[in-house]
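Fold this sequence, please.
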Amino acid sequence: MEERKGLEASNLKNAKILALGIVGLIAVIAITKIIIAQGEFTYVISNSENWEDVYSAMLYASLEKAGSDFLVSTKHGSILLNSINKKNDIRVISSKKSPFVINYADLIKDKGFKDADELILDNPNLELIEELPEINNFIVVGNSYGYSAIAVAPYAVITNSWVFLADRANIDEIDSILSERDVNNLLIYGFVDREVRETLSKYNPEIINTGDRFKDNIGIVKKFLEIKPTQQVLLTNGEFIEKEIMSGTSPILFTGKENVPEQIKEYIQSSDIEVGVLIGADLVGAATNIRRSTGISVIVKFARGARVPAGTIAAVEGLDLFYLPVPIMDLELDSAKYNRATSQLEVTYKSNSNIPIYFKGTLTPVTASGKQTKIGDVEPVFIAPNDFKTVSYSDVDFTDEKISLEVFTLYGETPSSLEKILEKKIDVDVVNVIDRCEIDIESVKYTKSRKEFSVKVLNPGSIDCWVDVELSDVIIDGVEKTIGSEGSVKILAGKKGKIVIRQEMTEEDLKENHFVNVIAYYGERENGLVKILKGKYELKVESISFATLSLIILALIVLVAVIVLIFLFIKKKREDEW
């Protein structure tokens, strides 16, 4: 009996061992399948119409040391595969909402590739980081425009950092991800929403934000070169994604769109940079300026071999570029007038931009007799979005009736980043006008509930006046900025008017701006504000506007009246019942 019990116990033990072995084998097989399906790939292809998805997939590939490409159209899905070695194991990062190609992994397999899997994601920027559990360095940039993301890409690759594209809507989710990691380094680069900065402050981040994207760019290039010294940089304008830009092989230096900003020229001249590789044929003009002004060699990468053979001649095709959202910066010359009554040349510009910009003109008036002279702006001039700005040049003496004007004006989003060029020749109209407008600025206040400045202007004269207002050197998020009204306002003779400038200000901002510098441009002609009034005024802060307060009081009066009427109605009804 005891031997039988011992045999049964031995059999039971062996069965348990066998069962555990089977379970273990199943687990190993399952884990192996996961590793094969999720870990082993040599190439990443982004399949999305969204630039944030493309950027995230390309960065993911670089951090995983895999090759990468991205689609730019549905047709591109087949063409792209002609340039990729079929021995690659492909991972497709597809957008759940906006892919170029549906079931792209199946198409890749049908083309004879070794293997392909597909991750279909809602938000690759927030989801792909889960595929990189070893990452503990992070960079946070704003997601409104792509400039900042492009600038930090090489630095992110060499420091093994993930780049979050943040705003006030997703910062809580980003914070949740960071809270589960042992964050070693966190860099906030460029402009981000105030809520982003406040939420991330607990991680003691390093911040690069001068208010000028070219100065910020130089800052991140210097950090790159401290880790990986090189004498070669990539030159681009930050407006598109391209494979080499995302590789991390060289730092990226912004050239500007047409003109090269002075700070970029000065940095190159003071650095050890010897070679610039220009990405994109559209920037050849800016690259030529760099070569001439700094002396470095410039190589232009503007095309690649054709992936679809056509004829016997080896053709080329353009680079694959995925364009990013960028602010609209467009300046045009509206008119040029010579006012004999004041001996002033009046040049009026029109901004078609959706952001405030600055411009600085060099003007060459040419008379019928061939006389030429040079005049221009000493400092950059501010102009609000979709607004006009007239710049007057005094003590200009022309006797000829026929005058033309050659205009060469640089412009950009900050006074030190004049990257675009307006070049035009225009006939000058001769006028004889005495502008009789006079104005006074009575007060400046900020209304918290409306998130706006209002400048009260008095017109004491007998002539209606048009007025446009700027507030210069306003400290917002710790950076001095100029803000302006959206177009000029007509102030009737002998009346007062209010000019509004919309701008969100925090309590910290308001504490930094007890006084504000006001510049008022005014005149009889709406598009010819040739007179200027400047002054420094105390800023009055109003928590709630008079109009809003009046509405609240009116609402309370109505509420009390309704309550009284209801009370009288109930009282009368009870009296009738008696």
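Residues 1-35 form one domain. DSSP finds 13 helices and 32 strands in the chain.
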